[in-house]
């Protein structure tokens, strides 16, 4: 890895292992940065519109059809009309909520039911219980419906996650749940991986292994590689690594012979010659982003884009995150991934107060039970449960904002049996 010396304008950081206060502020930066990036992407408004009455979304679709049929360039946006507009205001959406789901799973691993297991096995068991609990809820909703197509799902999720949960409900286990999956390649596991990295601060390889265990429930191939890369980068940054070292840790998890590996190396070569993150946007748009497939959520695109923009911005959130949002094709994930890594590199102070206030509370648009969850409070709980190696006792901590936190949702309920072994091996990947 490169030396940890800072470059002019680089995000603050230290090569020494962080104390508990530094660790906590980096976790706050992780969750708030991820949420800010999630909110900055244009898809967030559509995700948050799920909190509006269905007829408002139907009307938007009808207006879109009208624009297409009448060749008008006035395009509709999510609307409130006579309904309260709060869900449509700037704020985090699905990525932040699935990140919080993962954070609660990590917290659940501290429960007494996992006593006697080593830390790695505790988290893996909690991950297995959380996924199986979700699968059981979906199966129960389908059982109550007169037919499967009429079932009302208790959550909103990516295609890969819905397919993985369906596979679990039919009795499949990882890695088959991620391998036999139409969207095995997407980046749904990458935001979860960024949070799982808090379990192994300063240890990119162990963080990558844990991220793969979780990713195998919903992904395969580049979807798994991307999760390993994000976990490695965040773990390195949590341990005090600077931008280049954190990105190198991610690159070490991306095999050169894969699409994600080739894209990442090319994107980073472009980034190291770019004037800044904004000047890099057209190059990434033309040389990395694919405009062929129906959805812009391939890990082979979003992870390289995020790593490249963080590199070009020298770890500064104000450079990387807005640039990622400019890439509309990958704006559902790339800004969140860039925000997560720059948030760790710069700590909670890297997130402007206005964005912190707008993004600290979840709306429940993907996981309704998480509505009202306060990300700063959640970060504090994570920092208390997962202490970095050789950290001194926790000092009194003043939260960055005086707004009262909401009570976070309870940890996911456990099914009848827990996981009994380690994670599925990488050999199952495509």
TrEMBL record:
<feature type="binding site">
    <location>
        <position position="332"/>
    </location>
    <ligand>
        <name>Mg(2+)</name>
    </ligand>
</feature>
<feature type="compositionally biased region" description="Low complexity">
    <location>
        <begin position="1"/>
        <end position="19"/>
    </location>
</feature>
<feature type="compositionally biased region" description="Low complexity">
    <location>
        <begin position="404"/>
        <end position="419"/>
    </location>
</feature>
<dbReference type="GO" id="GO:0046872">
    <property type="term" value="F:metal ion binding"/>
</dbReference>
<dbReference type="InterPro" id="IPR036705">
    <property type="entry name" value="Ribosyl_crysJ1_sf"/>
</dbReference>
<keyword id="KW-0460">Magnesium</keyword>
<dbReference type="InterPro" id="IPR050792">
    <property type="entry name" value="ADP-ribosylglycohydrolase"/>
</dbReference>
<dbReference type="InterPro" id="IPR005502">
    <property type="entry name" value="Ribosyl_crysJ1"/>
</dbReference>
<keyword id="KW-0479">Metal-binding</keyword>
<feature type="region of interest" description="Disordered">
    <location>
        <begin position="1"/>
        <end position="20"/>
    </location>
</feature>
<dbReference type="Pfam" id="PF03747">
    <property type="entry name" value="ADP_ribosyl_GH"/>
</dbReference>
<protein>
    <recommendedName>
        <fullName>Adhesin</fullName>
    </recommendedName>
</protein>
<feature type="binding site">
    <location>
        <position position="333"/>
    </location>
    <ligand>
        <name>Mg(2+)</name>
    </ligand>
</feature>
<feature type="compositionally biased region" description="Gly residues">
    <location>
        <begin position="420"/>
        <end position="430"/>
    </location>
</feature>
<feature type="region of interest" description="Disordered">
    <location>
        <begin position="387"/>
        <end position="430"/>
    </location>
</feature>
<feature type="compositionally biased region" description="Pro residues">
    <location>
        <begin position="389"/>
        <end position="403"/>
    </location>
</feature>
């Amino acid at each position: 890895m490169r030396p940890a010396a800072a470059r002019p304008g680089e995000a603050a950081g230290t090569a020494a292992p962080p104390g508990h206060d530094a660790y906590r502020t980096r976790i706050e930066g992780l969750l708030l940065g991820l949420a800010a990036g999630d909110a900055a992407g244009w898809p967030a408004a559509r995700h948050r519109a799920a909190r509006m009455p269905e007829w408002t979304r139907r009307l938007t679709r009808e207006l879109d059809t009208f624009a297409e049929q009448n060749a008008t360039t006035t395009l509709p946006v999510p609307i409130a009309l006579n309904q309260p507009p709060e869900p449509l205001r700037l704020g985090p959406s699905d990525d932040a909520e699935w990140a919080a789901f993962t954070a609660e799973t990590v917290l659940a691993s501290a429960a007494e039911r996992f006593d006697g297991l080593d830390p790695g096995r505790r988290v893996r068991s909690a991950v297995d219980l959380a996924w199986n609990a979700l699968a059981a809820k979906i199966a129960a909703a389908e059982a109550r419906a007169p037919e499967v197509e009429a079932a009302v799902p208790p959550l909103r999720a990516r295609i890969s996650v819905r397919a993985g949960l369906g596979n679990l409900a039919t009795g499949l286990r990882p890695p088959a749940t991620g391998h036999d999956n139409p969207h095995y390649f997407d980046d749904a596991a990458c935001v979860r991986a960024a949070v799982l990295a808090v379990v192994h601060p300063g240890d990119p390889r162990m963080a990558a292994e844990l991220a793969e265990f979780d990713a195998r429930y919903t992904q395969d191939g580049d979807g798994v590689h991307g999760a390993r890369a994000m976990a490695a980068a965040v773990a390195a940054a949590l341990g005090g690594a600077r931008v280049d070292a954190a990105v190198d840790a991610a690159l070490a998890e991306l095999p050169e012979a894969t699409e994600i590996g080739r894209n990442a190396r090319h994107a980073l070569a472009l980034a190291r010659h770019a004037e800044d993150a904004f000047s890099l946007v057209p190059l990434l748009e033309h040389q990395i982003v694919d405009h062929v497939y129906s959805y812009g959520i391939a890990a082979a695109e979003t992870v390289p884009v995020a790593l490249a923009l963080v590199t070009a911005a020298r770890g500064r959130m104000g450079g990387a995150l807005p640039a990622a949002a400019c890439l509309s094709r990958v704006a559902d994930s790339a800004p969140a991934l860039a925000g997560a890594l720059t948030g760790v590199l710069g700590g909670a102070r890297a997130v402007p107060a206005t964005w912190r206030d707008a993004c600290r509370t979840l709306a429940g648009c993907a996981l309704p039970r998480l509505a009202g969850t306060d990300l700063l409070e959640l970060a504090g709980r994570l920092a208390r449960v997962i202490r970095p190696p050789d950290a001194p006792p926790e000092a009194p901590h003043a939260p960055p904002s005086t707004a009262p936190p909401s009570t976070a949702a309870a940890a996911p309920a456990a099914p009848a049996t827990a996981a009994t072994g380690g994670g599925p091996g990488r050999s199952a990947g495509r």
